[in-house]
Amino acid sequence: MARGTGADEAADAYERHLAVHERDRRRAQGSFYTPAELVEWVLDRALPPRGSVLDPACGTGHFLVAAARRLGVRAVHGSDLDPDAVRIARERLQELDPSVPSAEIAARVVVADGLTAWQDRTFDAVVGNPPFLGQLRRRSAGRNEAHRRELGAYTDTSAVFLRRALDLVVPGGTVALVQPISVLAARDAGPVRAVVAERGAVTDFWCSDRPVFEGTTVLTCVPVVRIGATPATDPDGWGALAAPGFGIPAVSLPAGAGTLGDLAACTADFRDQYYGLAPFVHDRLAGGVPLVTTGLIDPAESRWGSVPTRFARRRYDAPSVDLDALRSDGALARWAEARLVPKLLVAGQGRVIEAVADEAGAWLPSVPVVSVVPHDLDDLWRLLAVLLAPPVVAHAATRYLGTGLTPGSVKVSARQLAALPLPTDADAWAEGADLARRAQRAGAGERTGLLAAVGGAMTAAYAGGDDVHAWWAARVRRTDESGGAGRSAPA
Ligand SMILES: C[S@@+](CC[C@H](N)C(=O)[O-])C[C@H]1O[C@@H](n2cnc3c(N)ncnc32)[C@H](O)[C@@H]1O
Question: Domains in the chain and their CATH numbers?
Fold first, then answer.
């Protein structure tokens, strides 16, 4: 895109100024500007041949100027809280069409809160790159009362802008706002995805597996929502829009065979357990109970005692809980009793779902490890096989895409583990369970081959394809090489 006119240069200079001198303010307001190619991609899909367009957080007007080149300066409307940015946006539009009176431009591009401005107005398209704000700032971000009730306090500001935009477009109109990829699966964005399904559908989707905003690590996407389009996009299925971009193979798991929660109780621990345990954890305590952190869990393997780990800001070779002291202290005695049973321990997140069986019920989990306690002990290895199943991992990676630390990691909460579907092919499942037991009991040399065999049997148990197995196998290998991808910090 051609740039380089006086006002465009002012916009560039302003962005450099924000970058260099006001990094903090820029962070605080979420002002990271949009690359030109992405602007054009959005406008190609969102703009009607003629009509009106709004960017509710227009900054220096990248979307507005590009849209005005297509539709004319009189078609574009914008708002931003930053008066300097608004001034520059106005100047750029003026330069594009000097025949439009400046008062007219000023009436269309205003200093205002995009979440509350434009009452009773509608547009053919709402586009832009609204601010993304972290949790601490979310509460203070402007939003109207109805949205507060509908969305809750922790919804990212970018998703609140998406929600607001849905009210500002005409039937048949389009909303295309840049969003962090957490919008795909974050629980707090669920109500926004639900309203999208009520009003229309995501008809186009852009996402990137690397950050496109200079100076940020946030991965972004653009769901293009067309009002009135069908079929509605499943509010729980947005991850599938982005999965191909992350190389995650498509899977459809059998419904009707029940879920993991039918066979086991899945339980997470929280800060109380994390901090409560700290005084009772010692390194290599004779007679102590192993404390298993996320970083120590590999598929069908605990590396407790063979590699160091961190817990409560300290490094341990073999973190061990003094159970007698813990019991006499009282606070966590019942918790420890409940956890010291045969179970699976599942890492907080990893490249695959990393789970290991604690057959003897002799280990304690460290936050954010999830405990999966079978109702019937005979199901222990069957449950491990389910968590090692490539189609289950692909399903979880898709469904919960963007909720982990990195998009490459699979993060599955206790609730989500309980919702994982069970396989339909009982024979293949039994074979997978037997192989999973052998894999865990095997030495390192043999385990790799046995794990691959578990993957094969469980892919068959879920009627999955070779692509899913190959994808999973590559990820298991990488986990193996890195010695686990997890972290051990409280949730
Ligand atoms: C990421 S920038 C994007 C700017 C522009 N859309 C672009 O891509 O060039 C976000 C902008 O939102 C503005 N902003 C933050 N909170 C706002 C609010 N409540 N209403 C309007 N603008 C806001 C910031 O000042 C910043 O200019």
Answer: 6-246 (3.40.50.150), 260-482 (3.90.220.10)
